[in-house]
Amino acid sequence: MSLSTPVRLDLHLHTTRSDGALPPEEVAAAAVRAGLDAIAITDHDTTDGVVPARVAAVRQGRLRVIAGIELSCSDAGADFHLLGYGIAPAHGSLAAVAARLAALRRERIGEIVARLGALGVVLRLEDVTVPAGNAAMGRPHIAEALVRRGYVPNAQEAFDLWLRDGGPAHVPHRGPSPAVGIRAVHEAGGVAVWAHPDLGDARRFPDLRALGLDGVEALRPGLAPTASAAMEHAARAAGLFITGGSDWHGAPRPALGSWYVTEKHVPQLLARLGIATG
Q1: Which residues make beta-bridge pairs with 9?
Q2: Angle at the Cα of 93 from the Cα atoms of 89 and 96, rounded to 5 degrees
Q3: Whole-angstrom Cα distance, residue 30 to residue 257?
């Protein structure tokens, strides 16, 4: 299917199948209302939201849904989020990595709850609930439980006080290495993109390219244009293309469609995915 230009895309969206606020079907409907032409469903460690979003998009009649995933990899003890685009959602390699990550997520939730308890914030594992069909329990669900228990007025305060990266209750991911994630994405027929790197990470682009990384998410809300330009320069020097996405999870984020990229920003990704524009 060819998309008529100009094409408005958001290549990094989450649904209730991981830690987003809306079910896949509602994300697709919201994207159509927002005037987007193509979206990527990139839930954490699951592809379960892709098919429902595509079914809803067919009903809407004018939205392309790209099959994606965001894998929670680990690199030298630090989180490393890897986006996969154009994947076969049910591919065995991805399913194996996702199953391992689901088990690790459950362990991580238990460790975070234990750390909160040591801080005097008493929460039970059964207090942490997820929407039906969710396959990727995470920190936002703990934050919601803390709100329900009355410890904080909103989820953001839970992150600020305890759950943020480096916070007193934070437990880093212990996922697969970037090399394992990249290989799984490639085996599933997709392209592998580093999600939301910082400009200081650009020094690592050549080494990651050698591992098979295809691109970096250099365009996103909150990243200064000068930083985006410098990251794009470093990426292209390392043989990587650039992508862009809002990392939208729903409320209280800005409205879907308020930020997007066009075909002029991501031509190499669209070519790799076989998406024609014109």
Answers
A1: 38, 261
A2: 95
A3: 9
Residue 180 and residue 23: Cα distance in Å, rounded? Answer: 29
Compute how many other C-beta atoms are within 10 angstroms of the C-beta atom of residue 122: 11
pLDDT category at 238 given cuts 50, 70, 90 is very high
Rounded CA gap, 177 and 14, in Å? 22
Ramachandran assignment for 5, one of left (phi > 0), alpha (psi -120 to 50 degrees), beta (any other): beta
Residues 131, 23 contacting (CB under 8 angstroms): yes
Q: Cα 183 vs. chain centroid, distance in angstroms?
A: 18
pLDDT tens digit string along 54-69?
999 999 888 999 999 9
Give me 195's structure tokens.
């999600």
Using the Cα atoms of residue 73, residue 118, residue 135 and residue 266 in order, give the sign of their dihedral: negative
Distances (CA, A) of 234 to 183, 227, 241: 23, 11, 10
Go through the domains of the chain in sequence order and give each one's CATH number: 8-90+177-272 (3.20.20.140), 99-163 (1.10.150)
CB-based burial, 45-73: b 16+ in 10 Å, e otherwise: bbbbbbebbbebbeeeeebbbbbbbbbbb
